[in-house]
Amino acid sequence: MSTDTTLNHTAPQNLATIDPEMAAIVQAEFDRQQHTIELIASENLASTAVMEAQGSVLTNKYAEGYPGRRYYGGCEEVDKAEELAKKRAQALFKTDYYVNVQAHSGSQANNAAYLAAGMTPGDRVLGMSLDHGGHLTHGFRLNFSGRDYETAAYGVERDTGAIDYDKLAAQAKEFKPKLLIAGASNYSRVIDFERFAAIAKDVGAVLLVDMAHIAGLVAAGLHPSPFGHADLVTTTTHKTLRGPRGGMVFARDLELQKKVNSRVFPGLQGGPLMHVIAAKAVAFGEALKPEYATYMKRVQDSASAMADRFIEQGWQVVSGGTDNHLFSLNVMSQGVTGKEAEDLLHSVGITVNKNLIPYDEQPAQTASGIRIGTPAVCSRGFGVSEAVQIADLIDRALKARGDAAALEAVGKDVRALCDRFPIY
After folding, report:
1. Residues 376, 240 contacting (CB under 8 angstroms)
2. How many C-beta neighbours within 10 Å does residue 276 have?
3. Rounded distance, CA 317 to CA 393, Å?
4. Can you tell me the mean pLDDT for 21-38?
5. Which of 260, 164, 247 is nearest to 213 (CA)?
6. pLDDT tens by residue, 289-325
7. At what angle do helices 193-203 and 165-175 cross, to 10 degrees?
8. Distance separating alpha carbons of residues 85 and 285, to the nearest angstrom
9. Any idea what DSSP says for residue 319?
């Protein structure tokens, strides 16, 4: 019998030994995350348990179809993993809506929801403007949602930074969309799903709620739930849920359930990522624990405290504050573009993304604002006091642009704060 393990691809292998070049990249990214204050609102830190599931032997299994109805043999264990993910997702959001957990991403989930709603090319979609905080898949002209369908966009009021539901209702009556979308990627106020449902019903539209950003707040009872109001609900499983990168689709009734399933597979995707579905189940299980609600409350309180601190320092915050996990800071109010702010903060170890603000006069690649979120920093243990400290660090950095010594001092303070809270 041969003992030559070089012939055995499944023999234990260490990344640093097998591929030192990639190992160095992974280590460098770990170091970047450890020594960076991560404020990108759509990012978070998955637990080691989530990463263990995602890096498990389930990655080896092909499982086209659904539990009990696969097109491959040997799926008895991955069937259990998928059913567990579905059961936990329903428990987490306290809903009897059917859920499909196979979507590879939030965009795939939204595409499937469009098709399940019966959308055909040229049908009308009314979603939130990308410039005002919506998402690419809510009707942006370069996305499938804007290319395949006739779209109109609602936004926020210039003076309040919030949605005017009376104006939205009037717009819906005039436009008569087949699909009305609620949800955003950069909106800091509570979304009135009951009012959205009434508007959709009034114009005969299907209501799709994309709760990708606020899913964790909904699960923790810190934001009103879309369930019971929406026909279809989509979400990502990372962001505030702290799971692997992926998506899922909830459907109100059996008819929509069948359409969602067929649109996800075989309509848009082939084999599901069973290792990712298992990691989703782990994340949902973590979020069902009492400490998750405590975490989400800290996320919410930290974002609010940070926004308030910026206002005290003389900065403009879109809508005057936040009810959730994020907000937009109008940096042009003090003569800095969003691009300049992003680059400058990156140089001192603070990661944000430039972002258009409502009624922005700058192009998207320049922008007048930056988007700030607290999920990732709170996952590593930051709280309200650290959030206020971060606001002070950002204020110092942006006001010290051009002063190398002052920026170096900010960078040292950023690193010292990060060293107090190891990510793993």
Report:
1. no
2. 23
3. 17
4. 98
5. 247
6. 999 999 999 999 999 999 999 999 999 999 999 999 9
7. 20
8. 9
9. G
Of 193, 197, 224, 184, the C-alpha closest to 94 is 224
Residue 3 has pLDDT above 70, yes or no: no
How is residue 213 written in tokens?
């950003």
| Per annotation, catalytic residue among 151, 236, 240, 337 | 236
Residue tagged active-site, from 245, 263, 309, 371: 245
Look up 3 and say whether it is catalytic.
no
Is residue 377 within 8 A of residue 37, CB to CB? The reply is yes
Tell me how far apart the alpha carbons of residues 168 and 413 are, in angstroms, rounded to a whole number: 45
Residue of 38, 210, 286, 323 marked active site: 210
Q: Does the active-site annotation cover 239?
A: yes
**CA–CA separation, 355 vs 159, rounded Å?**
19
Give the tokens for residue 216.
């964790």
**pLDDT per residue over 59-76, tens digit each?**
999 999 999 999 999 999
Share of the chain above pLDDT 90, in %: 97
**Tokens 């996320």 — which residue?**
299
| Torsion sign over Cα 289, 290, 294, 299 | positive
